[in-house]
Amino acid sequence: MYRKALCYFTVLILAYAGIFWVMQAWAVIAAYIAFGLTAVLLGFNFAHDFSHNTIFRNKRANNLCFTLLYTLLGAHAEGWKHRHVSAHHYAPNVTDYDTDLQITRLIRVAPDSPHHWFHRYQRFYAPLAYTTYSLYWVFLKDFKVYASDCRTGRRLSYHASFWLQKAGYLVYLLVLPLWLGHSSPGLIFTGFLCMHGVQSLFLLLTFFMTHHVEATTYFHTDQQGFIQTSWISNQLRSSNDFYPFSKTANFIFGGFNNHSAHHLFPHIHHVHYPALNRILYPLLQRHGIEPNVTSYAGGVRSHLRHLQRMGNG
C-alpha cells in the first residue's frame, strides 16, 4: 500500500503541477486527463477501502482520508458512502434497494426498469453518454441527493462538508489554474471537460462490468419486500470479476477486479483478494457455484451486449 500510495500520489502531483507549468495546449489537456485518471485510481485503490474502514483501525481516520480523496473527484463523500455501504452492498442489483440502479433513464441496465423506445439504440449511444457521467455526478446528482437528504433533516457538519467539498473542487481545478497558470480560460475549461470525459468513460466501464454484464443476475422482491434468494447468492450472482488472481490487476484497480470477494468480505482490504480468491474459488466450485469472470475487454463487450438485450425489452 505504501508503494502504491507513493506511485499514484507522485503521478497526481506531477499532473497537477503540469496544469500550471506546461505551455503547449496539448500538454495542458494531457495534464488534466492524467490528473483525472489518477484521481479515479486513487478512488478505486484508497477511497473505496477507506469507506469500508479497512485501512486504519480508527474509523475517524478512515473517514477523514476518504473525504479528502473524494474532494479530489468533486463528489460529496458522505452522501456517496451512505448509499454505497447501506444500499448497494446490502442488495446489489435489486431494484428499490440498490441505489446504484437509480441512473438516468437514458440507460436501461435492469430488466424490471421502464423500457423506452430509444433504449433499442443504447448500445450505440451509451459510450458517448458515459463520458458525461462525472460532470453529471459532481454538478447534478450530488445536488439532487443533497436536496433529498435536506428534507429528512441533517446535522450542520453534513451541510458544511457538502459545500466545502464542492467549493474546494472548483477552486483547485479551475480557480487556481486560471489565477496562477499560464493558460487561457478557454484552454483551462477545455482541459477540465476533456478530463471529465476520459475519467467518466473509464470509471463507468470499470464499474458497469462489475455488476452489469450478461452473466449477472437481477433478483426481485416479493410483495412484502423480501428478496427471493439468499444474501450470499445475491452477492455472488450479481457480481463479476476480471483477472481475479492477478496481483497486477489488483494493484491497478484496487480490488474492483475482485468484486465477488469484495461483496462477500467488504471488511477485508483489497490487497488480500488474490490470495483470498485461491481459497474462495475452489470452495465455491466444489459446491457447484461458478463465479462470473471476464477479461477487461471482454467485460466491456459483455456490458454492451447486455445493453443490447435490455434495449430490446
Structure keywords:
single chain; 313 residues; mainly alpha; 2 strands; globular
Short structural summary:
With 313 residues, this protein is an all-alpha fold. It is built from 13 helices and 2 strands; from the N terminus they run αααααααααβαααβα. Helix 3 packs across helix 7, helix 7 packs across helix 8 and helix 8 crosses helix 13.
Can you give a write-up of this model?
This protein is mainly α and 313 residues long. It has one domain (2-311). It contains 13 helices and 2 strands, in the order αααααααααβαααβα. The chain has a two-stranded parallel sheet with strand order 1-2. Helix 7 crosses helix 8. It is globular.
Q: Regions with pLDDT < 50 over 5+ consecutive residues?
A: none
Shape: globular
Query: Could you tell me the number of beta strands?
Result: 2
Secondary-structure element order, N to C: HHHHHHHHHEHHHEH
Distance between the termini: 44 Å
Order the strands across the largest sheet as they lie in space.
Answer: 1-2
Strand percentage, roughly? Answer: under 5%
If you average the pLDDT, what whole number results? 95
Q: How many discrete structural domains? A: 1
Radius of gyration: 20 Å
Fraction of residues in H or I helices:
55-70%
Tell me about the biggest sheet?
A: 2 strands, parallel
Structure class: mainly alpha
Helix segment count?
A: 13
